[in-house]
Design brief:
Bound molecules: ligand LLP
Helix content: 25-40%
Distance between the termini: 53 Å
Low-confidence stretches: none
Structural class: alpha/beta
CATH class of the largest domain: Alpha Beta
Number of domains: 2
Strand content: 15-25%
Largest sheet: 9 strands, mixed
CATH architecture of the largest domain: Alpha-Beta Barrel
CATH superfamily of the largest domain: Alanine racemase
Mean pLDDT: 95
Radius of gyration: 24 Å
Number of strands: 21
Number of helices: 14
CATH topology of the largest domain: TIM Barrel
Length: 451
């Protein structure tokens, strides 16, 4: 996927390059870095840091562009946003208004989606381990489709639907054994990955499932991996799926729907990001003439560029290397420490573009050596305590993967929309962290304290 954590100053994009490729982000001579028309320093002053910012217009623009790519090819397709990438109610409301449904992976996401007013008929449930309670909720809410990931789950769904007196719609999620050519930790469609049903067994299973009374198989689903940058693996996976559709039909069964999953990659650093048109083209070419209802489950492509993690420099630490210690950390943005991912890191101050730079290691305050956002990264040489720093493209798998490690409360979230902005999630307090903990009475009983 993106470049390894040690940046290469020789090939890293400059601040100008970063701005040129991000239409929502501008540098103002007086206000410094501005996102969707709102100066970031204004938000930092009012809300504090670290703080997550989402740009509503960026989200809408991308939602429309993705849809338009399929419309341009006259290819009807349903869009199910992979809400694991960004699951705030405001995000879901915006995408609902854009006609999107959601791909969920837990009962919690189902509750969130329903609460955001997403119709059950626009909810698809993926995931390798759905509990009985989660399957029951899916059946009771009569969601569009459960993507079943194993033989065992198929039969369990049948039992649960029977107990509810319902017939559940399901698709078999196939593991096509295709290498998505991305980071190992976000590949999902290779033999040996835990996801989906081995493609060689899927056709026989489809036939077998025809006898189930309480599950109606509507088709096949696949998700190959995430941050995919080339057409090849998409083409290979979808061709395999199309062959399977033909085989299943030849065996006398109905295949109504194919869910193509997510995975479309973006430019974080200098990747040549595929366009939605590439995806639409590959789907049209491989699955377009099968007469099936098509759907996709994009997450990152929609949400990553909508997000900024705004942070303040706690300290600079001279040495070899020189460190910039931010008030954001791996508990906020886990991606660099988990996947060695590269995120654009920009100064917010107006002179940020013109100041001479030097190379810094940019780290958080968490007590882990892996709490590093970037090594050898260019930032102004005079970066100092109190300066604001923006971490770019953090809208996907950013806030949603935060933890409270080191008793660091979850940071605030802010939404910008057409020049307006508001806090959409108050910063968590340490008191809230402690409030849900209880100490058993026997520990507090008199006589236990030797202090
Ligand atoms: N559908 C299914 C069944 C998935 O498992 C995923 C992502 C998606 C759709 C959406 O994929 P996307 O369009 O976002 O690539 N935390 C990692 C990414 C994990 C992706 C997991 N599944 C990261 O930060 O890179």
């Amino acid at each position: 996927m993106s470049a390894p954590l040690p940046s290469d100053p020789a090939t890293d994009p400059s601040f100008h390059d970063m701005l040129d490729t991000r239409p929502s982000l501008t540098m103002d001579a007086r206000d410094g870095l501005v996102f969707e028309g709102v100066p970031l320093h204004v938000i930092a002053a009012a809300v504090g840091t670290p703080c997550w910012i989402t740009g509503a217009e960026t989200l809408r623009r991308r939602a429309k562009a993705l849809r338009a790519a399929f419309e341009a090819r006259n290819l009807p397709i349903s869009m199910h946003f992979a809400m694991k990438s960004q699951d705030h109610q405001a995000t879901l409301a915006i995408l609902r208004q854009c006609g999107y449904g959601v791909d969920i992976v837990s009962g919690g996401e189902m509750q969130r989606a329903l609460h955001a007013g997403i119709q059950p008929s626009k909810i698809v449930f993926s995931g390798v381990g759905k509990s009985d309670a989660e399957l029951r909720a899916a059946v009771e809410h009569d969601i569009a489709q459960v993507n079943v990931e194993s033989v065992e789950e198929l039969y369990r769904l049948d039992d649960i639907a029977r107990a509810c007196g319902r017939v559940a719609r399901a698709a078999l999620r196939v593991n096509p054994d295709v290498d998505a050519d991305t980071h190992d930790k976000i590949s999902t469609g290779r033999a040996g990955d835990k996801f989906g049903i081995e493609h060689r067994r899927a056709v026989a299973l489809y036939s077998e499932a025809a006898s189930l009374k309480n599950v109606r198989l509507v088709g096949l689903a696949v998700h190959l991996g995430s941050q995919m940058l080339t057409a090849g693996p998409f083409r290979e996976g979808y061709t395999r799926l199309a062959d399977m559709v033909r085989e299943i039909r030849a065996a006398g069964h109905t295949v109504e729907a194919v869910d193509c999953g997510g995975g479309l990659g973006i430019r974080y650093r200098d990747e040549i990001a595929p366009s939605p048109d590439m995806l639409a083209g590959v789907i049209a070419e491989t699955l377009g003439d099968l007469g099936v209802r098509l759907s996709i489950e994009p997450g990152r492509w929609l949400s990553a560029p909508t997000g900024i993690l705004l942070s303040r420099v706690i300290e600079t630490k001279a040495g070899n290397p020189d460190f910039v210690v931010l008030d954001a950390a791996m508990n906020d943005l886990a991606r660099p420490s988990l996947y060695e991912s590269w995120h654009g890191i920009m100064p917010v101050a107006p002179n940020g573009l013109t100041s001479p730079t030097k190379l810094w290691d940019i780290v958080g305050p968490v007590c882990e050596s892996s709490d590093i956002f970037a090594r050898d990264r260019a930032l102004p040489a005079d970066t100092k305590r109190g300066d604001l720093i923006a971490l770019l493209d953090t809208g996907a798998y950013g806030f949603v993967m935060s933890s409270t490690y080191n008793s660091r409360p979850l940071a605030a979230q802010v939404l910008i929309d057409n020049g307006k902005w508001d806090i959409i999630r108050q910063p968590q307090s340490v008191a809230e962290l402690i409030a849900v903990e209880t100490v058993p009475e026997w520990l507090t009983a008199a006589g236990n304290d030797h202090g």
